[in-house]
Design goal:
Two copies of one chain form a homodimer. With 279 residues, the first copy, chain A, is of the alpha/beta class. The two termini of chain A are 42 Å apart. Chain A has eleven helices and eight strands. An eight-stranded mixed beta sheet of chain A has the order 3-2-1-4-5-6-7-8, sandwiched between helices. In chain A, helix 3 (71-80) runs parallel beside helix 4 (99-108) and helix 6 (175-198) packs across helix 10. The first copy, chain A, has two domains: 4-173, 3-Layer(aba) Sandwich (Rossmann fold); 177-278, 6-phosphogluconate dehydrogenase C-terminal fold (Orthogonal Bundle), CATH 1.10.3660.10. The first copy, chain A, has helices spanning 13-23, 37-45, 71-80, 99-108, 152-164, 175-198, 201-205, 211-217, 224-233, 235-258, 261-278, and strands at residues 4-9, 28-33, 51-53, 64-67, 90-93, 114-120, 141-145, 169-172. At the A-B interface, helix 6, helix 7, helix 8, helix 9 and helix 10 of A face helix 6, helix 7, helix 8, helix 9 and helix 10 of B.
Chain lengths: 279, 279
């Protein structure tokens, strides 16, 4: 007898990886949902789901539902399918921005359902179920953004599930804080990587770059559709972050121009210390 | 009988690694020079030099001399020790900036000597001979900046030596071009890494960062003294680079604020394509 049934909506890289991770654990039955029958067949063949449906009325089989769709589709999905969810089910998502979703979900959520925002801090420069990986969450970080009145027992249950698939560290954050922090620690590095690859083609074409350039640009291998949504949905925090960073670059440029060695020394020394502490 | 004697001046991470790499090859005798007797003893103990001296008058034993000092010390070293070098010796350096050195070296170089600027595109977040690594140059890129009248046979000889220690790819560049390109492909990522670690402590302290932040900040683990010199010596190209990049960030900020999805899409798509081609 399985302890829980996990529903996964959207069998892409993330949904497929979640399904695969839960499928490996005896306690869970995994049901996949996708708009593509081909994707469902592929998930069955890979053995990462027990059942799969293109129709959402089977959502009522799932105790916990992971919605692994693009950010803008999440609230819409809950709204359209609100009558299908199992009584008292837990719903969570994987979107990299949280404030808009947590705000809008309140308007559409059935009273007995629980919605807890989720953001797995993992990624790959690949898309699609063919890259699904049961080990994607091993030793990873995960952020949860509960609602004001989230049932603490359901919150704990979701935590347990995530630990079981290998998550090492779960942070509870307010959605608005989450979006501010993520603008800096994730969206900004993605923006910088993209800009580094889009400017000074002449220098790039020399192919004289070492590890620093390669590391800084790895995440330029981005899923454009997804990241347009992530940037759009975090417009205010991200604009502020880019504005602050633009100023930081201007300050450094002034340091270089004025030969302000003391300030450069402070920046390098503090940067090094903070980075060492990050490990 | 050894084919050549390699002199290495300054047994730090880079000098120590060059010494170790040549020492492993039977054809070469390796002589180390350092101002610290302790460092020389340590190099002997590690078996990465055949002989070591704190006095530079033994430079006349070396057919090829790698000067592995900080950028500002290189021309000075050649000037002070000009009478010690062996007749017709090849001298090269490892500084990450080249224009100032190539310009100034002309004023101090003995007529029979050859100076070919060098920039190994390798690095480590470590300093000192204890981290010397004979494999540091395996499959690496290396830039050479010959003088106008560099003897082509000596240039080829230096190339051969570098290929023998594992260098995969040698680019010949004009010093001024080198400095422009390096400002973008190396100094800029180092500047960005440093700035990322110096701003928004609150976000960093959440420890919610994923791989994108870690990769973009790895090189914040910088040798401050060295990089102050590198920035100082490349003041003009680097200021221009920072200025251009500041503008690129401002443009992206405007895209985000104005919801210019088409432009974002172009940036992401082109960035991805260029990054894929970089591998």
């Amino acid at each position: 007898m399985k302890k829980f049934t996990i529903g996964v909506v959207g069998l892409g890289l993330m949904g497929g990886s979640l399904a695969a991770a839960f499928k490996k654990i005896d306690d869970y039955r995994v049901i996949g949902f996708d708009i593509s029958l081909k994707v469902i067949e592929s998930a069955k063949q890979k053995g990462i789901i027990d059942e799969g449906y293109i129709s959402n009325n089977k959502l009522n089989k799932a105790d916990v539902v992971f919605i692994c769709l693009y950010p803008k589709k999440i609230v819409e999905f809950v709204k359209i399918n609100k009558n299908y969810f199992k009584n008292s089910a837990i719903i969570t998502d994987i979107a990299g921005i949280k404030y808009g979703i947590m705000k809008d979900i309140e308007k559409v959520l059935r009273k007995d359902l629980e919605f807890i925002g989720g953001h797995p801090m993992v990624g790959k420069e690949k898309e699609g179920i063919e890259f699904a990986d049961a080990n994607l969450f091993k030793n990873s970080k995960y952020i949860l953004t509960p609602r004001k009145n989230t049932d603490i027992r359901k919150y704990r249950l979701l935590e347990e599930l995530l630990y079981e698939i290998g998550v090492l560290n779960i942070n509870l954050l307010e959605a608005v804080e989450h979006d501010e922090y993520v603008a800096y620690t994730s969206q900004l590095p993605h923006a910088l990587a993209t800009l580094l690859m889009n400017n000074n083609e002449k220098a790039i074409d020399q192919k004289i770059h070492g590890g620093s350039f390669k590391d800084a640009t790895r995440v330029a291998m981005i899923n454009a559709e997804l990241w347009i949504e992530l940037f759009e949905e975090n417009k205010y925090a991200l604009s502020k972050t880019l504005d602050d960073f633009e100023k930081a670059i201007r300050d450094m440029k002034n340091c270089v121009q004025n030969g302000d060695k003391e300030k450069l020394h402070n920046l390098f020394t503090k940067g090094r210390e903070k980075r060492e502490a990050l490990r």
